[in-house]
Amino acid sequence: MQRPARVSPALIGLSALIGLAPAVSAQGEWTRPKYQLNPQNEDWSGIETLPAEQRDWADRLKWMALDDAGDWRLTVGGRARGRIEGWSNFGQTENGSPRSDDIFELLRLRAHGDLQHSSGFRAYVELKSALAWDRQLPGGTRSIDEDQLDVHQGFLEQGFDVGQERPLTLRVGRQALAFGRQRLVSPLPWANVLRTWDGASARVPLGDWNVDAFWTEFVVVDDDAFNEAGDDQLFGLYGTRGLDGKVLDLYLLGTQRDGRTFNGTTGNEDRYTLGARYARPAAKGETDFELEFAVQEGDIDSQDIHAWMVGGEFGVSFVGDGAPRLNALIEIGSGDSSAGGSVGTFDTPYPLGHAYYGIADTLGRQNAIDIGLGGTWPVGERTTLAVTAHQFLRTNDGDAIYNAGGAPIAGTAGGGSGSSDIGQELDLVLTSRIDRHTTWQAGYSHFWTGSVLDDVGLDADTDFVYLQLSYAF
């Protein structure tokens, strides 16, 4: 599809849109749900308890009665996000790509309608349009950058009373999936084009547990036509429950994908991931923690898969004006011991790597260790500064290291000089909440190459800077 002629910068246009929006009333905000990545998870059924004079313009689009009895309800909403990115040596770890410098713009627009009936029936539709201007880095305008006017989500849902506090719900159609902290399955909110899946899912209440069962096919982006599901399958069970102020998740995920290659072994893949996650959320004056562990079994062609991963974080939130939250983290994905034969490389099927292996998105979890220290400081009433330092190491010298897209970086398999040092990264992210609709964010990252990359001639550092503005209603 021919790209549109250059227009005014995305962030300027988005700023103009926000400037026209009515101001938010400060009263009664506690009754409103927070805007979420997946808007279908927002519950607006209590909005009528808020006096009309305390509602802003967007509240009037929520839970609108379509009949006198109030059985039919419609909720309308949307999202807009603009971002400018600047890169120096973006392509240094891309397989065979030249080093490149560039500045470009991204804009993502979303609009949704949520129709619900008192019987538990629901019809949900969400449209999206993702635009990119002037991206001249290796790969050009990619499928995660641009997808003009398509269906992001479109599903029918029915709830059933099964004698529990919560109903059993069945959902069929196109839907965005996000589980736990999104280490393994995420709609990838950082990208300009969100991931989505076609299929069926059910949420089953089992005592204190909520269990999601699902079978889906990954939707392939085609900017020249309507997006359709491909052959890659994702299915499984994901259960979660509260436990004395903590959260426990147990899951079994299955993936079936064709034409996969890991360290010299190629074929159609059947991979199963069994894992658990245990976490205590952050709170002022308290310690918090998270630990996630998973193992993978299966096969690629006739070769067995035996892999594992660990993700963990420990934090302390101090009390007082300007008091920070300090944290330490570790993320590990197993690697393969030798080329060919059985596969020991852990594969994250649809991850949110941006949240774990550095905001420069240099590396994926496969065969990589990330050891990090950081903190988050309030620098204003609604503004925070997050600083994180990363040390990246190779898990196994017999395997390559992999980029954020899961592709091996050429020449890095086999150990080289024997060093495990991939590099270091420093991330700075400043986030400010202007009001409950509007957030701006600025970030900077510097990646220093280590011996593993230096040995294959990828010895130039990377710099990344961005400015982002988001609006939700």
Write the layout of secondary structure elements.
Layout: H1 10-20, E1 64-65, E2 72-88, E3 101-117, E4 121-133, E5 147-160, E6 168-175, E7 197-206, E8 209-220, E9 228-243, E10 246-262, E11 265-280, E12 287-300, E13 303-317, E14 325-333, E15 368-378, E16 383-394, E17 421-433, E18 438-449, H2 451-454, E19 462-472
CATH class: Mainly Beta
Strand runs, count: 19
Oligomer: single chain
Mean pLDDT: 91
Explain what the structure shows:
With 473 residues, the chain is mainly beta. Strand 13 and strand 14 form a beta hairpin. The protein has a single domain, classed as Porin (Beta Barrel), CATH 2.40.160.100.
Give a brief description:
Residues 1-26 form the signal peptide. By secondary structure, the protein is mostly beta strands.
Keywords, please?
mainly beta; Porin; 18-stranded antiparallel barrel; 2 helices; globular; disordered N terminus; Alginate export domain-containing protein; Alginate_Permeability_Chnl; signal; Alginate_export_dom
